[in-house]
Specification:
The complex is a heterodimer of chains A (about 270) and B (about 90).
Chain A lengths: L8 E6 L2 E3 L20 E3 L1 H17 L6 E9 L4 H10 L3 E6 L9 H16 L6 E5 L10 H9 L2 E12 L4 E8 L2 E8 L2 E5 L11 H7 L4 E4 L1 H4 L27 H11 L5
Parallel strand pairs in A: 1-4, 1-6, 4-5, 5-11, 6-10, 7-10
Antiparallel strand pairs in A: 2-3, 7-8, 8-9
Helix pairs in contact in A: 2-5, 3-4
Chain B lengths: L2 H19 L9 H11 L6 H33 L8
Helix pairs in contact in B: 1-2, 1-3
The chains are: A alpha/beta (about 270), B mainly alpha (about 90).
Amino acid sequence: MHPSSARLLNILVPVKRAVDYAVKIRVNPQQTGIDLNVKHSMNPFDEIAVEEAVRIRERLSKGSEPVTITALTIGPAKSIETLRTALAMGADSAVHVEIPESAPAPEPLGVAKAIKAVIEKQKEKEGVDMVILGKQAIDDDLGQTGQMLASLLGWGQATFASKVELDLDAKNATVTREIDGGLEQVRVKFPMVITTDLRLNEPRYASLPNIMKAKKKPVTKLTPTDLGVSLEPQMEVIKVVEPPKRVGGSKVESVDELVEKLKTAGFTAV
Amino acid sequence: MAGPSTRLRAIKLYKELHRLGRDYPDEHYNFQGKLRRLFEKNRALTDSEEIEKAFKLGEYIKNETLALYSLRKYRHLKRNYPANDSPS
């Protein structure tokens, strides 16, 4: 669906309930993953994505284009909190694809397939013009979902975005991307997938009045079966271990002592 | 306390600060206690100028705390996800 100046721009923002950034990560006793019994919050890159969607709406509402923002999450019942944060930041409605509490964390390919299924469901209403996601989740740092989604949908993608400028009349966007060695500018046609990098914007803090208002916004509940998607993991984590503890260095009193220590450590003169 | 509207304003501010204080990074900093004490200290104010000053202080603390949170998060993220400015 292509937006024209009189019609809606529909933005979908998938968000993830990830381990909070301030938590000290620990490997679980079974060595199969990290301790998940810790504070969770919305992935910071996803906060940036929600913020960008809200800013796009603020920029465009100077004209007559109404923009709708839908937040989406795939996760256990607790993930509803993440959706509430997105709604409090400015999303209009949300979709919760609920998985059982005991289910393993979905993999990026599964997530991408689920997002695609939600988009196809939306096509029956007004469709989705743009998907904005965080470039990676801070708990797994995989950074694959956006790219996989674009590929499954056959849409253009602009990843690691640090600036997004929309041209609705030309039906495209100019995106500045952060790449190794500098910045790159790409032009993407609608519909598109954008993944956000850290320097795109500064997300707003959801204030209490907005949190209260968010309680009235609609949340649709779906299951993977409703979408016809299987979230069975295709990979098995065999082992997770902590990196070796850093051993402190020691101070030496003189050059001779340094030479002695180097000799005992096995270094020989070249 | 002058009038029901100031009372509502004060309650609103208290609720906002209370909610903010929940995310305070230092566990040993008694945000709730300080918040309570500061509000209780000012409960008998009648002069509208003084009341305004107290509200301004409350708003100031709210903004400072918000700035603390966002800076802390930003610094952490910036450290862990640095900008690519040299070819790897």
